[in-house]
Design a protein that fits this description.
By secondary structure, this protein is α+β, with helices and mostly antiparallel strands. Helix content is 33%, strand content 26%.
Length: 174
Amino acid sequence: MKIYKTFETERLFLRPTSIEDSQFIFDLLNSPKWIKYIGQRNINSPKEAENYIKVKMIPQLEKMGFSNYTVIRKEDQQKMGTCGLYNRKGIDGVDIGFAFLPDYEKKVYAYEAAFQIKQAAFEDFGLKKLNAITIKENLSSRKLIEKLGLTFVQNIRIPGDEEELMLYVIEAKK
């Protein structure tokens, strides 16, 4: 079995999301802000979340070496959110995304995790540019994306999503 990169920050561990995270992924995908800002995924049980991980996350990890990472607080091993690099249809290149359970918002965990994943995108995975997408109404996501150094480029639509998205980009330093 291939070993995939994991990451560590001062307060967090980030490891590739796996089947053992199915209850956590079920909870996250059904949290109010996920549904409001990212969209309903119709994951109605931990078993369906397990299948979602098998179909949506693990294949990209196996193909590209990166995917979705479960963010775990070091002090108590609590799963708090996800942050990852995604190869989505309709976007030229890889984008960074993040989501946290409500109890862990506004504590700078998302920035800490996303900064680490952004760094990994360039230093560990050799990406030349990194995208981020969000809807206009998601002000906290927009602020975090901008704090990470990405710049708004244009509004776009991606296949299977009728909502207009804001596309941000950052290039690797040369």
